[in-house]
Amino acid sequence: MSRSADTWILTAQCPSRLGTVDVVTRFLKESRCYITEQQSFDDHHGERFFIRTEFRPLEPDFDAEAFQAAFAARAAEFEMAFELTAPDARMPVVIMVSKADHCLNDLLYRYRTGQLPIEIRAVVSNHPDLQPLADWHGLPYYHFPITAETKAEQEARVWEVVEETGAELVILARYMQVLSSDMCEKLSGRAINIHHSLLPGFKGAKPYHQAFEKGVKLVGATAHYINDDLDEGPIITQGVEPVGHADDPEDLVAKGRDIECMTLARAVDAHVARRVFLHGRRTVVFSR
Amino acid sequence: MSRSADTWILTAQCPSRLGTVDVVTRFLKESRCYITEQQSFDDHHGERFFIRTEFRPLEPDFDAEAFQAAFAARAAEFEMAFELTAPDARMPVVIMVSKADHCLNDLLYRYRTGQLPIEIRAVVSNHPDLQPLADWHGLPYYHFPITAETKAEQEARVWEVVEETGAELVILARYMQVLSSDMCEKLSGRAINIHHSLLPGFKGAKPYHQAFEKGVKLVGATAHYINDDLDEGPIITQGVEPVGHADDPEDLVAKGRDIECMTLARAVDAHVARRVFLHGRRTVVFSR
Amino acid sequence: MSRSADTWILTAQCPSRLGTVDVVTRFLKESRCYITEQQSFDDHHGERFFIRTEFRPLEPDFDAEAFQAAFAARAAEFEMAFELTAPDARMPVVIMVSKADHCLNDLLYRYRTGQLPIEIRAVVSNHPDLQPLADWHGLPYYHFPITAETKAEQEARVWEVVEETGAELVILARYMQVLSSDMCEKLSGRAINIHHSLLPGFKGAKPYHQAFEKGVKLVGATAHYINDDLDEGPIITQGVEPVGHADDPEDLVAKGRDIECMTLARAVDAHVARRVFLHGRRTVVFSR
Amino acid sequence: MSRSADTWILTAQCPSRLGTVDVVTRFLKESRCYITEQQSFDDHHGERFFIRTEFRPLEPDFDAEAFQAAFAARAAEFEMAFELTAPDARMPVVIMVSKADHCLNDLLYRYRTGQLPIEIRAVVSNHPDLQPLADWHGLPYYHFPITAETKAEQEARVWEVVEETGAELVILARYMQVLSSDMCEKLSGRAINIHHSLLPGFKGAKPYHQAFEKGVKLVGATAHYINDDLDEGPIITQGVEPVGHADDPEDLVAKGRDIECMTLARAVDAHVARRVFLHGRRTVVFSR
Questions:
Q1: What share of chain D has pLDDT > 70, as a percent?
Q2: Distances (CA, A) of A69 to A52, A59, A77, A84
Q3: Contacts of residue C283 in chain B, CB cutoff 8 Å?
Q4: What are D's interface residues with A at a Cβ cutoff of 8 A?
Q5: pLDDT mean across residues, chain A
Q6: What is the DSSP letter of C189?
Q7: Cα–Cα 20 to 30 A to D274, which of A70, A234, C99, D257?
Q8: Does residue B180 sit within a domain?
């Protein structure tokens, strides 16, 4: 169900233990919050519990701060980390790109039409090419060129933009530079990359050319949180597209664009809807 | 997660009201039952609440009868209907067929290998053709021929088999006779049919021939609960398969077989795992 | 294979008869044209033959006019209609829209980046809303409002635009007005509409709302040539998207957008690549 | 179009050169053979030409031997290898299995119902488990146990079965032993293996467990010709299935079965319909 104008989201996670669901649902009931949708999962491998709840406060004067303060006391007993998301929340975002524009174009469309509840604070690139696209959408565009010598400096400037804009999410929409380990760590759990292959197949550079050489009959895309192991971050969404013997590498590039856009958009949508939990090298995704 | 040997399922539904989740989860906690997976949904259209919970009793001497008796008292206050399903439950099933054997063959394979937690008590048909297949699996096969005159009588005998075998689910695995309104009512919510089109497209007879005439580029299959409105029962699962200009009606028939098998098997799997709730003319399906 | 800069397309159709392939391939060989890809299909239902050939002239001074004149003589014997398409052909197109912008936005992106070999000559709408989008792409936008009284007049103006721009294809990218029979006839085989359902399911208005009422588990989109029978024109491409019980009609609308864009883009791509043949109430589509 | 009772298939390949299509189609016309469907592809990477033609002889006394002899003379000039397949051809096949029965069960069903035009001459296994299944279908079952010491000897016996039965295709339907390089070479282009991952991801043992560790959101299956590089043979077909965080490795195993069966069946179907051409490390597949 699309969240209506009065629907909040409460997400939480903690070590596995009896009563983890109860502590959430009882508090909501006592707070006269009406649960419209709830999913929970207890991972017996990692012994960790995850829950996502959509609810509507029944009283008109719902006080989010008081709610959080009161719940924090109960959550503490379970070592439970939680987050409350308001109905009108729009996550502040920075998008990083290089020269390919399809993912950026797609995100900007979903942003402009309100399909994605994000607020794009800046577009950052190591190339000037996509500035007109950002301009048309009235968005600041930062061009930070990069060379072997200036890599560290460029990253510092990117980080400045992230900090100053208050971005909670960085989207690497076909950004073709490898981030440093330090940057990856700073952005852990809040930077989503789209890789143009079905990971773990075809890591690294030119995956479509690798796919052509191998003669695969499906190409794909993988959206994942970045970590310091290139193309090895926890996977959020994956998509595929059939290809054939007559497709040259450039055809695979062209055919892959749509599935890259869709796969990235779905990952971002799930992330901002608080449907994704980072869980070690994997993710928990409560699908709609 | 595949249910382990000690995982029970509790499903429930009731009119929408504050506290519906809480009454379930609080009781489970008090009963020292550990929730491993839970999904709930509150339908604001129908003002009805649905919940499905998988849990493991932490105490070795879990008493299902006592659990149900105790929970019934609490559920009554919410007009909540509920069902408790044991870890080793195998739903007793009767399968109805005519001449086409692909869905039956598929179900028998999943049954024989334990993939589907059902216990097939009988195969019933208006034709003798599929007896050898039932025989090989050691299953009783009832051949009740049907004519315009004997239709009511035949249905009575089918009903006898359902009653005597204690079947909780009837699967119409390409059974090509229309059931009477009376029979549909008796089997409401516990008879699943596979129709070989993407309903509501191509209702009635020879849907693949209709699809050929129309020149569609996708054919499909729909598994649904039966009701007395032919091919209009609440949909559980649907699947599709691409087709092309070179496909004759017989090709569509052949290409559709796999998707019919898969779509029916998924519906049955969801039903026996108590993932499906009948909700007026629609269904609520908590997917895995 | 993506057509390289020197690859021509020859398409043809005629009544079924011995030698239809031979007349094409022999002529190409004699003309020293090198066939890189060829597909033919002889429909035994309609007794009609279809062929599509991609070829590279081996001589540097390929004369398209002379080629056509020479081939016409041979084709005549087979009552064969044919078309020769140059490597750099860009089909002139008029796009018609109402208020929804997702399909237009998608087509404009593919146009701007050269993915679709079309040349958009105008955007025509019965509403002013999408003018800024057309403006940014530097395209003429014609706003022809429509009322019950002005319908005929508006269509006349649309037709004028089609004529004056020399458009060979009209794309109805979520144009929400029914065209007159006369207009449908004039545009026969060269106007593609996107309908937001899996036809023949949910014809007419508000198909997603119909789909919600029916409780389907898949929604879809259908791109088809228009004819004077509403939503009954010959189908080119269809696509689907899974939906669930928690999706309200507005969610179906939102979830359907991507598949509408993709389905329409694929139909347009196939049409301009001369992969689609109109064949009575059906189409022949030589897929890549 | 499903091949009717009088439709022959002619396939051919040769080095790229002007006139390759013409030599085929002209001969067919002169032989009064009516082409119903034709696809050709010229690979500019490998400079090799491939063609597949379905045709109906118009004269009642079509002489296949004379046809081949006459065409051989023309083909020789183009160094063209060709194959003529009769309407009623059923390819003799040997199936190899270990303990998992789903692919075998699926192939046997398609064989028994005539969906796959093959003639299964024997089932060979390194385990006795699947003998009852073969027995029910009236098929010889050879149990050749295997140990490190007897591996060469066992392969020799397998080869004997292949030779003696005249098998033209060997299907490795989840056969869990690696074949020797010698055996792979002998079976080059006529042995199809199903690997339970989307190659090149997750080669080798226990791919579903690897997929679980990696946290992928899609699992898949790959049907390929074997070669002496394990899981690296030319790919024919691939299929995928969505999975989620709640799926344990055993769930992936269960969910993957259907897609393995479908992917293998499609590869075998394409191979026996002469739609697949081995082309170095890749394949050309003329899809329907």
A1: 99
A2: 19, 18, 14, 11
A3: 215, 245
A4: 41, 43, 45, 198-202, 213-218, 220, 234-240, 244-246, 248, 279, 281-285, 287
A5: 94
A6: T
A7: D257
A8: yes
- Looking at the 3D structure of chain A, how many domains does it have? 2
Distance CA C241, CA B266 (A): 17
What integer pLDDT is reported at residue C149 of this predicted model?
Answer: 86
In this predicted structure, the answer to whether residue C3 has a pLDDT above a threshold of 60 is no
Query: What tokens were used for A119?
Result: 């607020």
C248 and C141 inside one domain: yes
| Across A188-200, average pLDDT | 94
pLDDT band at B231 (very low <50, low <70, confident <90, very high): confident
CATH code at position C55 = 3.30.70.260
Statement to judge: residues D80 and D102 lie in one domain: no
Residues of chain D in Cβ contact (below 8 Å) with chain C: 1, 18-22, 25-26, 28-29, 32, 34-42, 44, 58, 287
For residue B22, list chain A residues with Cβ-Cβ distance below 8 A.
Answer: 22, 25-26, 28-29
Our CA-based measurement puts residue B157 at a distance from the nearest CA of chain D, in whole angstroms, of 30
A59 and A95, same domain (yes or no)? no
Instruction: Tell me how far apart the alpha carbons of residues D100 and D254 are, in angstroms, rounded to a whole number.
Output: 11
Task: Calculate how close chain D gets to C264, using CA atoms only, in Å.
Answer: 22
- Give the SS3 label for residue D139: coil
Q: Which one of C231, C247, C248, C258 is the catalytic residue?
A: C231
pLDDT band at residue D1 using 50, 70 and 90 as cut-offs: very low
Average pLDDT (D90-111) is: 97
Structure confidence at residue B5 (pLDDT): 73
C230 or C86: which leads in pLDDT: C86
When pLDDT is cut at 50, 70 and 90, the band that residue D147 belongs to is confident
- A35: closest CA among A2, A68, A57? A57
Q: Do D156 and D81 have their domain in common? A: no
Among the partner-chain residues C198, C244, C282, the one whose CB lies closest to the CB of B215 is C282
Question: For A215, which residue in chain D has the nearest alpha carbon?
Answer: D282
Residue among B238, B239, B279 whose CB faces C216 most closely: B238
Mean pLDDT for C110-126 is: 96
What percent of chain A is predicted at pLDDT more than 70? 99
Q: Are strands B141-143 and B81-85 parallel, antiparallel or unpaired?
A: unpaired
**Inter-chain CB proximity C247 and A115 less than 8 Å:** no
Active site residue C247: no
Of the candidates A29, A34, A42, the beta carbon closest to that of B35 is on A42
Task: Check D246 against B288: CB less than 8 A apart.
Answer: yes
Beta bridge partners of A84: A10
From C2, which residue of chain A is nearest by alpha-carbon distance? A251
Question: Could you tell me the pLDDT band of residue D3, with boundaries at 50, 70 and 90?
Answer: low
Domain, as residue range, for C100: 91-285
Residues D62-89, mean pLDDT to the nearest whole number: 97
**Annotated catalytic residue within D101, D129, D231, D251:** D231
Cα–Cα distance, B116 to B110 (Å, whole number): 6
- Chains touching chain B through at least 3 C-beta pairs below 8 angstroms are A, C, D
Mean pLDDT of chain C: 94
**Nearest CA to B164 among B126, B111, B122?**
B122
> Could you tell me which chain D residue has the CA closest to the CA of C52?
D39
If asked whether residues D37 and D113 sit together in one domain, one would say no
Same domain, A52 and A181: no
From chain D, the residues in CB contact with C42 under 8 A are: 34-37
pLDDT digits (tens, 9 = 90+) for A84-141: 999 999 999 999 999 999 999 999 999 999 999 999 999 999 999 999 999 999 999 9
B177 and B273 both lie in a single domain: yes
> What are residue A235's DSSP bridge partners?
A224
> At A264, which CATH number?
3.40.50.170
Q: D224: part of which helix (H) or strand (E)?
A: strand D218-225
Nearest chain C residue to B237 by CA distance is C217
Q: Sheet harboring C169-172: ordered strands across?
A: C141-143, C118-125, C91-97, C169-172, C191-195, C218-225, C235-242
